[in-house]
């Protein structure tokens, strides 16, 4: 473990030293020699560095580190609670709007308006416009009743779902 902690510190420092010290002669060879020194079981370089620098620093700052972890845990919990509350409120608003028929009426009115303008368009030569007027009226009535029954069923489901969430 000591090696990996020292190697992580070395890798972090390496990002900055590569920018400024790459022009130093034998810089890359020195880096390789340092990593070999860290890895070698004979020199135990990582153990020496860990025990001399890292462990005393972590021991002296242990209380501060524990306090910081507790603060981060509390803040993350508070953020999660606020997010869940916001999602619950948003769900209730959308469910109420859909349950009152605001969304379904608006969507149905747009779709029916588009359909009636499509059928009454004189430039349209599709088979829809060639149907007799009585057949077109039956089609409109049937589509409207299906749409209304679907939206009523959907509203019931949404009301049930909104009620089950509270």
Automatic annotation (TrEMBL):
Q: Which GO terms of type biological process are on file?
A: endoplasmic reticulum tubular network organization
Pfam families associated with the record? TB2_DP1_HVA22
Query: Which segments carry the region annotation Disordered?
Result: 116-148
Q: Which GO terms describe its cellular component?
A: cytoplasmic microtubule; endoplasmic reticulum membrane; endoplasmic reticulum tubular network
Question: According to the UniProt entry, which residue ranges have a biased composition of type Polar residues?
Answer: 116-144
Could you tell me where this protein is found in the cell? Answer: Membrane
How does this protein lie in the membrane?
Multi-pass membrane protein
Source superkingdom:
Eukaryota
InterPro entries attached to this UniProt entry: TB2_DP1_HVA22
Q: Which GO terms describe its molecular function?
A: microtubule binding
Predominant subcellular localization, coarse grouping: membrane
Q: List, alphabetically, the PANTHER family matched.
A: HVA22-LIKE PROTEINS (PTHR12300), RECEPTOR EXPRESSION-ENHANCING PROTEIN 1 (PTHR12300:SF33)
Write out the similarity annotation: Belongs to the DP1 family.
What is the protein's name according to its record?
Answer: Receptor expression-enhancing protein
């Amino acid at each position: 473990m000591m090696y990996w902690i020292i190697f992580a510190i070395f890798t972090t420092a390496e990002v900055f030293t590569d920018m400024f010290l790459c022009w130093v002669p034998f810089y890359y060879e020195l880096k390789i020699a340092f990593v070999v020194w860290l890895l070698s079981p004979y020199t135990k370089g990582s153990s020496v560095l860990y025990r001399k620098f890292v462990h005393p620093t972590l021991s002296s700052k242990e209380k501060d580190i524990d306090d910081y972890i507790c603060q981060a845990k509390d803040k993350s919990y508070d953020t999660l609670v606020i997010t869940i509350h916001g999602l619950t409120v948003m769900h209730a608003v959308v469910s109420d709007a859909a349950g009152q028929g605001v969304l379904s009426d608006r969507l149905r009115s747009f779709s029916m308006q588009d359909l009636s303008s499509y059928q009454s368009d004189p430039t349209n030569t599709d088979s829809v416009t060639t149907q007799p007027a009585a057949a077109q009226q039956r089609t409109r009535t049937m589509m409207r009743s299906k749409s209304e029954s679907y939206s009523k069923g959907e509203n019931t489901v949404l009301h049930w779902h909104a009620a089950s969430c509270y």
